[in-house]
Design brief:
synapse; Mito_OM_Translocase_MSP1; single chain; Rossmann fold; 347 residues; transmembrane; Helicase, Ruva Protein, domain 3; alpha/beta
Length: 347
């Protein structure tokens, strides 16, 4: 019976085994098809979300930072990972109070109003009025040490430092910015004690108006609402510090949430002498160097300007070197002022 059935089946209908060349050809075609499919999916994913690769890199950076600061058992969401990429461990910070000159009064007040209640919480446990402020604003001309003070505060207080860039909270997809804003606070609470520092805070929380985009307005409202949540928890050790050159542009509701404010003005002559001594502390300078004479000629100079003056010096530093650097900086500042004035006139 079996023989009769096999005789009726045509030879071409029987599946024969593939030879070596056919197997290799099939493998090659499958591999090529898989590669084309993979790169097509990659291209489509990049077209849909151009920031996908940056987010992946940020997540790797965040995981590395979390391991370095010894935080491994805390579960973080995808959005918290994006914010954690901007985390700075206070133990790795090199900035201390000794690296800031000419701001002794501000530093003393910061120690009394911010750091003392943090480091001695038991002394103020029964008082709600003497708790550390949840918001601190540093304002004044650019280059006068606002960012340095924020970092030194985190270092001295032992707080983890989240250097938040406003661009971090922007996303093309609707609703994502609100999730990122919420992640800032949830991450800070998980990692407390912590400081959320927002440089140029006026670019993010400027006065609201009817011309604001809907997504931006919602994000600002949510950010300030979450900020209010910090005040309700007395034991919460999260502080938001902001720095700005334009406090007049800030939203009044935001200013109310920053009750502690410090004005960082341009240094006077005595402060400039202290800054010059700090800048040149470890340099080879002539013993006859007159810091007072140089300080008197630097009207309108910030601490950053003074530091920039001496970056190209060749040791030993002499009085004529300082004088030459001073004239060069004056020309640079004058040129910058003229360019700014031209833009203002054109506008």
């Amino acid at each position: 019976m079996i023989r009769k059935i096999s005789e009726k089946i045509p030879v071409d209908g029987i599946i024969r085994p593939l030879n070596r060349n056919e197997v290799l050809g099939l493998i090659f075609r499958l591999t090529a098809f898989g590669a084309v499919t993979y790169f097509t999916i990659e291209w489509m994913a990049d077209a849909i979300d151009p920031t996908r690769k940056q987010k992946a890199e940020a997540q790797k950076q965040a995981e590395k930072l979390m391991r370095e600061i010894g935080v491994q058992k805390i579960q973080l969401s995808e959005y918290e990972m994006s914010i954690a990429a901007h985390l700075v461990d206070p133990l790795t910070m090199q900035i201390t109070w000794h690296d800031i000159a000419g701001l002794d009064e501000v530093i003393t007040e910061l120690k009394d109003t911010v750091i003392l209640p943090i480091q001695n919480r038991d002394l103020f446990k029964g008082s709600r009025l003497l708790q550390p402020p949840k918001g601190v604003l540093l304002y004044g001309p650019p280059g006068c040490g606002k960012t340095l003070i924020a970092k030194a505060t985190a270092k001295e207080a032992g707080f983890r430092f989240i250097n938040l860039q406003p661009s971090t909270l922007t996303d093309k997809w609707y609703g994502e910015s609100q999730k990122l804003a919420a992640a800032v606070f949830s991450l800070a609470i998980k990692l407390q004690p912590s400081i959320i520092f927002i440089d140029e805070i006026d670019s993010f929380l400027r006065s609201r108006s009817s011309s604001d985009h809907e997504a931006t307005a919602v994000m600002k409202a949510q950010f300030m609402s979450l900020w209010d949540g910090l005040d309700t928890d007395v034991n919460c050790q999260v502080i938001i510090m902001g720095a700005t050159n334009r406090p007049q542009d800030l939203d009044s509701a935001m200013l109310r949430r920053m009750p502690t404010k410090f004005y960082i003005n341009q240094p006077n002559v005595m402060q400039k002498i202290d800054i010059l001594k700090l800048i040149l502390k470890n340099e080879n300078v002539e013993s006859t160097l007159d810091f007072g004479e140089i300080a008197k000629q630097t009207d309108g100079f910030s601490g950053s300007d003074l530091k920039e003056m001496y970056e190209d010096f060749i040791c030993p530093i002499r009085q004529e070197d300082l004088q030459r650097a001073l004239e060069k900086m004056k020309k640079s500042k004058s040129a910058g002022f003229q360019e700014t004035l031209m833009h203002v006139t054109l506008d």
